[in-house]
Amino acid sequence: MAVVLDARGINKRFGAVTAAQDINAAIEQDSVVGLIGTNGAGKTTFINMITGYIKPDTGSIHFQGRDITALAPREITRIGICRSFQIPQLYASLSVFENMMVSLGVVLRNAGLGGYFSRGRPIVPGYDAPAEEVAERILERFGLGDYLDKNAQVLPGGVRKLLDIALTMAAKPSILLLDEPTSGVSAEEKFGMMEMVMSAVKAEGATVLFVEHDMEVVSRFAERVLAFYDGRIIADAAPEIALVDPEVKRYVVGGELHRMDVQQGAKNA
Amino acid sequence: MRLDTNRDRTLPILGAVLLAVIVFGPLLPKWALFLLTIAIAKGLVSLGLMLQLRAGLVSFGQALYYCIGGYTAGSLGRYFNISDMLLQMICGAFAAVFVALILGLLLARYRGIFYGLLSMALSMILYGLLAKSESLGSTDGINILPSTVFGIRPSQEWLRYVVIVTGCSVAVFATALVHRYLKTPLGRLAPAIKDNEIRVEYMGASVRQAIYVKYVIAAALSGIGGALAATAVGHIDPDMAYWTTSGEFIFITILAGTRSVAAPFLGAMIFEIIRTVAFDISPNTWQMTLGISLLLVIVFLPEGLWSLFGRRKAG
Predict the structure, then answer these.
(1) Does some domain include residue A159?
(2) Min Cα separation B182/chain A (Å)
């Protein structure tokens, strides 16, 4: 399959901390890639560098053959790489529907539609429908149909997460980066939620990279795993291979187990 | 709230107000016409403030452009012998836009208190410059030529009426344009910018550009308002740029709320009425009356006077 996103020789240091060390990863079109690693391993830094929030010290990132290393986040969004956030970034004073409409408005504007002198209801690029219909369609797909009029501020945690991801779909991204899509969601709801997100995303045909701590979720949804440790990628393989890799077991999965134990212990205490 | 299905009555309301001014204007006493004209002028400036407030920005220096509008009108008369009030308002808007296009580059980088204080500083610089400029009358200011419209000088009897009808027409036109702007994607972005700039950027929009555009539009409105006030009063002085003048505009904007483009005009009218009445009853404590009325509005109508008319927000 064609490589759609290509990170080459990326290094990044924050003072004494190495956040990325010789990262090389070629992401194939329409694949689903899970990024795993303990906290501070460099997963989010990797995502932040792809979206232009952080610039690597050395190395380059190519999207469909184009060097995007130096672009600003909004320019990267415009060419089709969108991200969701670990902590949902919503428009708190607006309703769920309006949140979506604002996002679609930006998409229309970037496409040169819906300007001051335009008349009627412009068609959202990629969706072949006016913004109102597209908003409802996307929100329905993410199971948010019952919340359209609810203010984003009062939504339950899982719904906020879903809306955060749904908003990224407005631009019909070709690459979607999900930063811990199931964090803060209860263990019982995780699978259902990922199921919904993945089917909604796949319906629009996007390549997905997601950061995840739950190895069950990773092995179920990822086609390929990038395991991060100390700013390096220590394994890059299909989940059934990567998750049993001794290094991964020691530094990532074990670390996760350790982390879960600690959390469990804290809860029990 | 969802699909904009609740009919938007803004434009008919604006049209009705203009019609009412035209029809009932001749019946009103001159002082009332004057008061209304000033309210329209200040309403225009407050509309500009409202645009910024919707994006979470409070300018403590909107008087800068009010003053530029006023002095543009005054200079047209003083140096070019132009007394046409339409021309004065148009030139006032252009002069304000010209300055805003430059200063906006700086201000669009700031948020919160820095935005407010920087805009106030710029306004006070203009105040200082005008107070020192002999040719523009320094602190005494200058008089404005009696208003004409399309080269016709109305009789003293009809002057106030002609001024308000012309001013109101321009204000209604400008307000309708702003109303339309608020329906565009860029206009709708304002509350989103207020809520979450990071998200706006990650959606592919430039927050700075959106704020810049709002700043320039606000300046244009303020320039028109300043020119209208100047021609209505017949005199301008540097106090137009003083920070207390900016304070009045903030007062009006908060009094009115940000729900509708018509709200600032209602707010300005009520502000002028409260001030006039309060001053009449007790000349020494009128500020207290104003303060108490604002306090009441903030406590009981946190979304401004306009929330008395609109439906309560869902959710």
Answers:
(1) no
(2) 9
